[in-house]
Amino acid sequence: MILKTFSRWLMILLAIPAGLAPGFFAGSAIASRILHLQGKGHSHNDMFTVVTSGMLGAAVIAVLFPLVVWFLTRQRKA
Fold first, then answer.
1. Residue 78 lies in a domain
2. φ and ψ at residue 75, rounded to 5 degrees
3. Within a domain: residue 22?
4. Which of 38, 60, 70, 78 has the fewest CB atoms within 10 Å, i.e. is most exposed?
5. Where do the TM regions start and end (predicted)?
6. DSSP the chain
7. How far apart are the C-alpha atoms of 69 and 18, rounded to whole Å?
8. Is residue 48 in a domain?
9. Which long-range contacts (CB under 8 A, 24 or more apart) does 20-23 make?
10. How many domains does the chain contain in total?
């Protein structure tokens, strides 16, 4: 029982860094695509928007991944 609980919490903790890279990529890709569709994004000033969106995406996914792992690994009562 203790090993199951430990491995569950370890998976939840490892889900945080696992969500950072895809979240940053998704957030910056969405912002870059929106700027491109608006006819912008060709300036260095627009990099602040892309990087900020990437950090926001990384934060959201870094919170969402552990919640999904927690939900999928919880013990069901019989």
1. no
2. -85, 135
3. yes
4. 78
5. 47-72
6. -HHHHHHHHHHHHHHHHHHHHHHHHHHHHHHHHHHHHTT---SGGGHHHHHHHHHHHHHHHHHHHHHHHHHHHPPPP-
7. 11
8. yes
9. 20/58, 20/61, 20/62, 21/58, 22/61, 23/54, 23/57, 23/58, 23/59, 23/60, 23/61, 23/62
10. 1
Is 63 among the domain residues? yes
Produce one character per residue of 39-62: b if its CB has 16 or more CB atoms within 10 Å, e if not.
eebeeeebeebbeebbeebbeebb
How far is Cα 35 from Cα 24, in angstroms, rounded to an integer?
16
Q: The whole model's pTM is what?
A: 0.77
